[in-house]
Amino acid sequence: MSKAARKPSVEYALAWLEKNGSKAGREGMARFNIPSDKAFGVPMGRVQALAKELGRSHELALALWETDRLEARMLCAYVDDPALVTAAQMDRWRRDFDNWAVVDTLCFALFDRTKDAWKMVDKWAKAKDEFGKRAAYALIWSLSVHDKAAGDAPFLKGLALIERGAADERHFVKKAVNMALRAVGKRNAALNKAAIAVARRLAQSTAAAPRWVGKDALRELASASVVRRLAAR
Known about the structure:
Elements: H1 10-20, H2 23-31, H3 44-54, H4 58-65, H5 70-79, H6 87-94, H7 100-109, H8 117-124, H9 130-146, H10 153-165, H11 171-184, H12 189-203, H13 208-221, H14 224-231
């Protein structure tokens, strides 16, 4: 049946995911610290193929989220319409985050395209739960890559949030803070200079988490290849 003849439905999407999942896929997820108890075991490329078939539907995305199945929630990132996503919806979904894969997929393929993305960065940086807080830094990371129109000001503010967030020792927060710092520092020469200053301060910390974030980011941000690429722009 063609897409035109079939209204996209949760039932169809779940049946498709179940058909295209596998035990091997679920085991692979578990190896990457992605909980597989609610997963079908569908590769991301296949999830994206299903999203292309279904097309954009805000109503379908809201219903898919409520299924609490891993790939269905990832599918939301590609099916939902960023123009219709509200701050309240983003907050509601953030409270459900329970793994890094859903966090990063939503931030990189949906949330960073919404009008409230920067507002959520500020709010979620104060979150107490590990994956909710990761979302703030995943959004900075994603916006640094995808928000081509933004000036330096929001990213400089993001660097201040990164410097504070680097003290969080939880694995999934720490990794996102590190990636956000590196991404902002590769956006342009001015932000590279500012990010290097943050990384150097963090690298001198007596605490393990910020010291690791700073030293690891500094290796890339101060590398000859990054400096050359930014100078050539």
